[in-house]
Design a protein that fits this description.
The chain is α/β, with parallel strands linked by helices. The protein has a domain at 23-122 and 155-284: Ribonuclease Z/Hydroxyacylglutathione hydrolase-like (Metallo-beta-lactamase, Chain A). The chain has helices spanning 64-74, 89-92, 95-102, 110-121, 129-137, 142-149, 156-159, 231-243, 263-284, 295-299, 308-324; strands at 23-26, 29-35, 42-49, 54-57, 79-83, 105-109, 168-170, 175-178, 181-188, 195-200, 205-209, 251-254, 328-332, 338-342. The strands form three sheets. A seven-stranded mixed sheet has the order 1-2-3-4-5-6-7. It has a five-stranded mixed sheet with strand order 8-9-10-11-12. A hairpin with a 5-residue loop joins strand 13 (328-332) and strand 14 (338-342). Helix 8 packs antiparallel against helix 9. The two termini are 33 Å apart.
Length: 348
């Protein structure tokens, strides 16, 4: 969701790096922006100079175009290691390709690696029954559901190069030496389970991935893979953990949008956005509604076609959070949709 954070944060670079053209953002660290074929039209990757080779942090969607952009951006430099912050295809997409091309090793959180391996191997020509049941449970618009039943769904394998077996695990509190610095690994959660963030020990830099974005709030979605999950709770808990380490001196290198300072303030926003959204949702659920009927209070605007899928999984996440927290009840409608209703609070 958009959250209007821009004014309160400091952006050392007013304009984004040109697509595919590395821009130095700190000694030994380059920002490489790659295109994405969706509303969020780019992803940020980073190149860290290790002296005897380079570490790449996140990799972009796999396409012929992004492979060519990497070749140009690297300009003959050898990549020895790929660090992936989390399993989403815009971050893990070309990891397997860089490994194959450069003989690089893969370093990422275990959950992310398992998810990426599992999802790339699970190729589906049509939505599986569990996915269809999940969409129904969310109250998906009948026309959109009917169209999706006849279409090949988004497949991880369409945007993620095959991942070889074997990787090195990033763990909470562990350290990584890269770009002439030592970094402490701290795990985020909620946007993706076990989302790695890297904090330089000199206190200057944070590689934030999608956990620490400026100006857009990371999508918190529930999927058929874990239909009862509560990623909003995971998100809020991880923000509290990470906020304890944030300082105004940190330059945050995020997975999308512009590098920024003002992380303590931003951490507050990244939790407050959801607390406010949950309060609006609770009011909206004075009468029973499906998740698909909750876009307006959550996003405060109409949702267009290309955003429908992400909006639906995020609406499910917020309804589920109220339910897990005892703030809402639910019952099945005849068509399989959950009808959520706020627990009426006693008047004071
Ligand atoms: Zn992500
Ligand atoms: Zn992303």
């Amino acid at each position: 969701m958009m959250d209007g954070a821009r004014s309160a944060l400091v952006y050392p670079w007013e304009t984004p790096a040109e697509i595919g053209v590395p821009r130095e953002v700190a000694p030994g660290i380059e920002w490489v922006r790659l295109p994405l074929p969706m509303a969020l039209d780019h992803v940020n990757c980073y190149l860290l100079d290790d002296g005897d080779g380079w570490t790449v942090v996140d990799t972009g969607f796999d396409s012929r175009k992004t492979r060519a952009l990497w070749d140009t951006a690297l300009n003959g430099r050898r990549v020895r290691r790929v660090i992936v912050t989390h399993h989403h295809p815009d971050h893990v997409g070309l990891a397997g390709w860089v490994m194959a091309e450069h003989g690089a090793e893969l370093v990422m959180p275990r959950t992310g690696w398992l998810m990426a391996r599992m999802l790339t191997l699970d190729v589906q020509d049509r939505p599986v029954p569990e996915t269809v049941a999940f969409w129904r449970s969310a109250g998906m618009d009948p026309d959109i559901l009917a169209a999706r039943l006849e279409e090949r769904p988004f497949n991880f394998a369409d945007a993620v190069a095959p991942l070889p077996l074997g990787y090195t695990r990033l763990v909470e509190g562990g350290t990584v030496d890269a770009g002439g610095r030592r970094w402490t690994v701290r795990m985020g959660d909620g946007h993706a389970p076990e989302h790695a963030t890297l904090w330089s020990e000199d206190g200057a830099l944070v590689l934030g991935g999608d956990q620490l974005l400026p100006s857009i709030s990371p999508n918190l979605g529930v999927y058929a893979t874990e239909p009862e999950a509560d990623p909003v709770a995971d998100w809020l808990a991880s923000c509290v953990r990470l906020a304890a380490h944030a300082t105004d001196a940190h330059l945050v290198l995020p997975g999308h949008k512009l590098p920024y300072r003002g992380l303590p303030f931003r951490m507050g926003q990244l939790t407050d956005n959801h607390h406010r959204a949950l309060e609006r949702l609770e009011v909206h659920l004075a009468r029973p509604r499906t998740a698909a009927e909750c876009f307006l209070p959550l996003f405060k605007r109409q949702i267009g076609g290309g955003e429908y899928g992400l909006a639906l999984v995020e609406a499910m996440a917020h309804c589920l959070h109220l339910w897990h927290a005892g703030r809402a009840t639910r019952r099945r409608r005849a068509d399989g949709a959950w009808l959520w209703q706020a627990v009426s609070r006693r008047a004071t």
